[in-house]
From TrEMBL:
It holds the Pfam family dCMP_cyt_deam_1. Gene3D superfamilies: Cytidine Deaminase, domain 2 (3.40.140.10). This is tRNA-specific adenosine deaminase. It comes from Ancylobacter dichloromethanicus. The gene is tadA_2. It comes from the Bacteria. Residues 5-122 form the CMP/dCMP-type deaminase domain. GO terms for molecular function: metal ion binding; tRNA-specific adenosine-34 deaminase activity.
Length: 179
């Protein structure tokens, strides 16, 4: 299976997690961790208005708690429906993940385009390949559905206007990220 079709299939798994979150009334972010075509774990955002229950963090806790045996040589890829925030991206840098694939750019809080110029040696020596825009339209549709149906005051009152504009309008280009 070539990388493009593998990315498409794995993002489909992440989108399914996001759809499950949406069904629960939660911001629809889903994440999958894969080693090649093998899924090591999957998760979704689990609580409304909780700053720590991000899909990626839930996934990292599932896969990397305890005595795991993964290394960067395993070629682990994180698939997520939304560009990771600084917390999730920073955590990713600490883990043996070598590639990040996301569906939709997060014009409000995404950090995949953050450069690591001047980063500490641990991070400078551990680059992460990044690809964005895989099944973007499907992710945007989930986020639009959430924005149309949520009762959360933050979103109803126009919170994260950059994000809402990107969902409702044209995608926002982020430098350094391949769309």
């Amino acid at each position: 299976m070539d990388r493009l079709s593998s990315d498409d299939r794995m993002m489909g798994e992440a989108l399914a997690e996001a759809a499950a979150a949406l069904q629960e009334g939660v911001f629809p972010v889903g994440a999958v961790l894969a080693k090649g075509t093998d899924i090591l774990g999957r998760a979704r955002k689990t609580m409304a208005s909780n700053h720590l229950s991000h899909a990626e963090m839930n996934l990292f806790h599932k896969v990397f708690m305890g005595d795991y045996r993964f290394s960067r040589a395993d070629g682990l890829t994180l698939y997520t429906t939304l560009e990771p925030c600084v917390m999730c991206f920073g955590t990713l840098l600490h883990l043996p993940i070598v590639r990040l694939v996301f569906a939709m750019e997060d014009a409000y809080g995404g950090c995949a385009s953050v450069t690591l110029n001047g980063a500490p040696p641990r991070h400078a020596a551990r680059p992460v390949a990044i690809a964005g825009g895989v099944r973007r339209d499907e992710a945007r549709a989930l986020f639009a559905s959430f924005l149309d149906t949520t009762a959360e005051p933050f979103w109803r009152e126009g919170g994260a206007p950059h994000f809402q504009t990107a969902v409702r309008g044209e995608p926002v280009e982020i430098s350094g990220v391949v769309p």
